[in-house]
Amino acid sequence: MHYNLVPSCGWLFEYFMWTSSGYSGHRRWIQLITLHERNENPIFSDAFQDELIEGYGSLFMGWLLFHIGSIGSHGRRQLFYITFTNHYFGLSRQGIDILASYGYGVTLDMFDKMYKTTELKSIYNIKYTYMYIYVHLYIHVVSV
């Protein structure tokens, strides 16, 4: 049965809770569905929604990023961010290569290219931000 019980997260979150939330998450989801059917409310209360988002929000985001990355070539940036996070937390290059062979990240050459591009964009954005702040502060000081 399809509901729109968690409007703040939408249908995709509900699909995640039905299919991929793990044993305890699925059990809690069924309990909340049962309580919902007894009360006959169109959506979960704010307390139930907050409980679900707090408990399963980060798992849902990881699941979502992985599945968006699996859709096609335009979803590679999500897989790059997953690989980047793994690299940040200490995953070796060999580990990145192994995960990429199973489809859980980008390959090493793609990671290196995207990492350099992202690093250059970050440097450019920082320089632009400093210049923007400097010019606006200068205009403000001159006008006062």
Would you kindly provide a written description of the structure presented here, covering whatever features stand out?
This protein is an all-alpha fold and 144 residues long. It has two domains: 1-69, no CATH class; 73-144. The protein is 76% helix and 0% strand. The chain has six helices and no strands. It has helices at residues 11-19, 22-39, 46-69, 76-88, 93-101, 108-143. Helix 3 (46-69) packs across helix 4 (76-88). It is flat. The N and C termini lie far apart (64 Å). The relative contact order is 0.08. The mean pLDDT is 81.
Write the layout of secondary structure elements.
Elements: H1 11-19, H2 22-39, H3 46-69, H4 76-88, H5 93-101, H6 108-143
